[in-house]
Specification:
Elements lengths: L1 E6 L3 H11 L5 E7 L2 H8 L6 E5 L7 H11 L4 E6 L3 H10 L4 E4 L5 H11 L7 H8 L6 H6 L4 H11 L4 H8 L3 H14 L5 H10 L4
Parallel strand pairs: 1-2, 1-3, 3-4, 4-5
């Protein structure tokens, strides 16, 4: 039996995932939570095989939550579940330690197969995403730059794109301001820009906001 914990702040989403997973006799939902603090409380009480984690869960962002889980609960496998741009965030979350990434726009049938694959320690991304990551189409040119970025750089870029100043980015990611400045300089180099306005334009092209 595969034990699953669902972490998403939308009750209707949690209910929907539960309904889909209940169709599989070898999957058991042992808990569902709506915030990261509830998630870590639950992980101290129960031992899921797979956590289905929403990218934008409140309190700590999904990638930071994923890193914390990898440190504190290394045996738990994470399937990221998000409405965010699949091309951008799938790679980022997998680099940060997720075993799979599922878009909220994906076919419902994928949820069961994703949970099963991740529980076995295998990587899961949809065939469509695998194809898009394998081939650069002309319209996806900005995403080619993205592949050069680390998951931490993506986090910094996303926060800058949301209007945060260096100090706020530093506080949000538990870094010092100097480190954030270094990340910003590195982002500008990798995305081939020389000012913040163009950097944010690239973030927009990458669908980060």
């Amino acid at each position: 039996m595969i034990k699953v914990l669902i972490a998403d702040n939308h009750p209707i989403v949690r209910l929907g995932i539960k309904q889909v997973l209940k169709s599989s006799p070898d999957i058991e939902i042992i808990a569902d939570v709506s915030t990261t603090s509830e998630l870590f409380e639950a992980l101290n009480k129960v031992a899921p095989d797979v956590v289905i984690l929403e990218m934008d869960i409140p309190e700590i962002n999904g990638i930071a939550t994923l890193r914390k889980m990898k440190l504190e609960f290394p045996n738990v496998k994470t399937l990221m579940y998000s409405g965010q741009s699949e091309d951008v965030y799938a790679l980022s979350t997998i680099r940060a330690g997720a075993f799979g990434y599922l878009s909220k726009t994906a076919d419902l049938d994928y949820i069961v197969s994703a949970v099963k694959k991740v529980s076995e320690g295998n990587m899961f991304i949809t065939n469509e995403l695998a194809q898009r990551l394998a081939f650069d189409e002309g319209t996806q040119k900005p995403r080619r730059f993205f592949r050069k970025l680390s998951s931490r750089e993506v986090e910094v870029l996303k926060l800058l794109a949301s209007g945060k100043r260096n100090k706020e980015v530093a506080e949000g990611l538990n870094l010092n301001e100097k480190t954030v400045s270094t990340y910003k300089a590195r982002l500008m180099k990798k995305l081939n820009v020389d000012n913040l306005v163009d950097l944010l334009q690239q973030a927009k092209a990458l669908e980060l906001y």
